[in-house]
Structures are given as structure tokens and as C-alpha cells.
Amino acid sequence: MSLSEAVSELLTPEPSPAAPINEYAGLQHDPQVPEGQTWIHADWDIKVASLRSNSVHNWYVQLIHGQGMSIHLKMAIFWSSLFTSSQTGAGTGKLAYHYARLLLDHALGNYRTFLKAFTVEPLTLKYLNGTTNRKGSPDENYGRELQELFAIGKGPDSAYTEDDVVAAARVLTGWRYNWPKHNSHFVPRDHDTDDKQFSAFYGHKVIKGRTGMAGAEETDELLDMLTSHDECPKYLARRLYTFFVTPEISEDAESSVILPLASLLRERNFDIVPALQALLSSAHFFEERFRGVIIKSPVDFILGTFRTFGVEFPKDVQPHEKFQMERAVWWLMSEQGFKFGDPPSVAGWPAYYQVPTFDKNWMTTNIVALRGLRTDSLLYWGFWTPIRNLHIPILKFVSALDDPGDPNVLIDDLVELLLGYDQIEQSTKDRLKTILLSGHPTDAYWIGAWADYVAAPTNATAAATVETRLRRLLQVILQMAEYQLH
């Protein structure tokens, strides 16, 4: 593909996925939902509430593991780090699913539209106290985070005031979510109908108080005020840049990339695809200094490894067994600090905002050991699940490469594919080749061993000879520092 063709392919949305279904029937009977049917319209039931919430987590695993050639799911992760919430705190699978669907439906859409939908999202109202925000006692939680984290940020020119936080909270009074129906609605009697005065940062904007259902229109006016401010597109541009390019923004990048990208966002009314197209097609994005500079998140590391090596969930298991296996993979990411839809705080995951450590937050001394242990398990004894261990299909994976019988070509291909680039020192490649050759001085050892396997792939001895050497080779590659980066 050409660059434009590749970027276009990446920015093609995934098909809208079917809703999560009851795959937990073998663990707990659901009196409302037969096995294989979706539970998202069923009434809340305490006996299966946690299983339905877990079903949403498994749904993420399924979608990311099975996605096509699109950036769609990657962008859902990006938005979950910006428009944060707590699926664990939802208390019901319906709220968790509704938020997950919001991320997917708007992942490659329009930021303005997304921000408005997120503001009145039922789980947002619950998580950030919107449902307790009422006239006479405004709760400032969402009014603050809306400006600090979701729209304006804390850039050098961000100067909104505490009075702006209070005014925003007063605008947002009256929004509620309905527990039985799990939807949001506006309650006029709880809305502050007085005028709301904003600071010089917002041009001394006054949002006129409204009565009745017209009070809900104040929310749209507030969000339009925020997204019309110059700081909003700059903040979004910075978040995109630090997610896709490098966590640290230089003065040169601020002027040559961030400001033009912000202008493009403004010109295109905050449609996200043109901005991504410009960023991912830029010469700046492809500069050598930005290759391998971001530590992979747990989802990139775990499910990325699964996808790269073709690790599949077995087809000959019962739905509830598959459910448990997917749950185990979700916990595999969780132990390394990533729960999709459940960041540790409203600010998101520290890897995406915490100066100056940023992505280094993904890599503690404990997680370094865990990563090596998990890739070793996939190569040797299998990653444990309650049902069946998961393995990397080593011979199938290597057989699909261009010329696995030539040790030099094989090493080059593995380095480029698994480490993301081929600028690895020759001494490192030589060390990897020594592992593959088991210390033999010539290439003939591997050439002959691979030829014997190809000639008789069902011969256990021939297969074991090459698989043993490949397993050790891949073990070393997957523990290299470069494999932890993208």
C-alpha cells in the first residue's frame, strides 16, 4: 500500500459489533436471558449483575483480539483515557455497556458531539456526581473535570478560574440518570435558573438562565463555549500527539505540529478523522527519533502479542468456558495496570498524563518481571486459564514467514516484525543467531534442521528440534527492551 492507502485503511471504522451476550449460563442461571442472547435490555438482577459487568470486559477482549485492519479500537482506548469513567463503579452491566458503546460509536467521529454525549451519559452522571448536582448546592466535580480534563486542559495559556468551575456546575444542575431504565434525563425543578457569569478567559460570557425543559439548553451553550475557545483544539491536539507520537512535546513540535493540528480540528469542526489523517501522514510522525519511544500499554503488550502470533481461543469449549478464558486474559492486563474502562482516577492512566514519567508508569520492577513471565508462559507451559492454557503456535507462526529456512533472513524478519524496526545492532542479531544455531559454527545446522521438518512436519523429532531452538530464540526477543516499545 501507499502511505495514503494505508492511513485510509487504518481510519476505516470497524463494523458495528453485536452487543455482549449471555456466555455465563454455565456459571449462573439467568432467569431473564437464555444462553447466547444479549442481556442489555434485561432488568437488573443481583444474582447475575457482576457476570453481566464481566461480560462487558470480555466483550472488549473479543473486539480487540478479533479486530480488523483499523485504528477504531485503538481510538476507543484513547478516548477512554480522556473521557474517563468507572465501569466497576457502575453497579450494573447496562451502565458499563452504555459507556463502552459510547466509546466505540464516537471513536472516529466528532469531538464536539462526543463531549456532549459524554456529559449526559448515565455513567458519567453517576461517576462524577452529576446526579447530585442541583440548584442551591451545586456539585463542582464535573464542572471542574470538564474544563481541566475533558475540554480545556492545563496548558500554558489555560486560565479558567474557580468561579468558572462554579458557573459550569450551576449550568449543569438538573441532570439525572434513571436507575431502573439506566438512561439520563433533565429535571427542571433541580436546575439553577439564574444567569451564569464566566471570567475574562471566556470573554466574560453570560449564559442566561432558563426555566422548564429549556434549562437543558444551557448545557449545549456551555459546551459550545468551551469548544469554541482556542485552548480546546490545542488540548485535544496535544493529547493525540502524546498518545501516538511521543509523550513529551518539544517547543518545535508545539509550533510545527500542535498548532497546525489544532487549526485543522477547528476548521473541520472537530471531526477527528482529518486530524488523524494529517498526523499519521506527516513526515514528523515518521522521523526516526519517534520510533520505539513509547512503552507499550498492557493491552498493546498482551493482546498485541496474541494478535501478532495468532494466539486463538479454542473453538471446542462451552460458552461459559470461553467466558472464563477471556476473563483470565482481562485479568492478565489488569495485573499490569490496565482495566479497559476503569482507569485508577478521573485523570485516567498516569502513563498518559503524569509529567515527567508518562509511559514509564507502565513499567515497574514488578511489571518487568511479569511481562517476561507471561511471554515465557505463552512459549513454554502456556498462559494459564481455568479451562485450558493458551500457547503461541510457534511452528505455524514461523512457517508463514518468507524464508524461515535461512537463519539470516529469519532473524531479520523476526527483528523487523517483532521489534518494529530493523535498526538493531549487528552484534545483537549475531547473538540471536547463535541461539538459533545452538552454538554451531555454520548455518548448515539450522538449514538442515528446517529442511527435515518441512519434509516431515508430522515427525515429532524433526518438529521438536526446530521448535526448541525457536522457542528459546523468541523467549530472548520477547524479553528485549525493544519489544516493550512501539
Describe, in plain words, how this protein is organized in 3D.
- The chain is mostly helical and 486 residues long.
- It has three domains: 229 residues, no CATH class; 51 residues, no CATH class; 90 residues, no CATH class.
- The chain is 50% helix and 2% strand.
- The protein has a two-stranded antiparallel ribbon. A two-stranded antiparallel sheet has the order 3-4.
- Strand 3 and strand 4 form a beta hairpin.
- The two termini are 21 Å apart.
- The mean pLDDT is 95.
Top keywords for this entry?
486 residues, mainly alpha, two-stranded antiparallel sheet, globular
What's the overall geometry?
Answer: globular
Our count of domains comes out at: 3
Look at the helices and sheets and give the structural class: mainly alpha
Amino-to-carboxy terminus distance: 21 Å
What is the strand tally? 4
Widest sheet, order of strands: 1-2
The average pLDDT value, as a whole number, equals: 95
Instruction: From the alpha carbons, calculate the radius of gyration and give it in angstroms.
Output: 26 Å
Number of helices: 20
User: Any low-confidence stretches, pLDDT <50, length ≥5?
Assistant: none
- The amount of beta strand, in percent, is under 5%
Largest sheet: 2 strands, antiparallel
Helix and strand element order: HHHHHHHHEEEEHHHHHHHHHHHH
Oligomer: single chain
Query: Which percent range fits the helix content?
Result: 40-55%
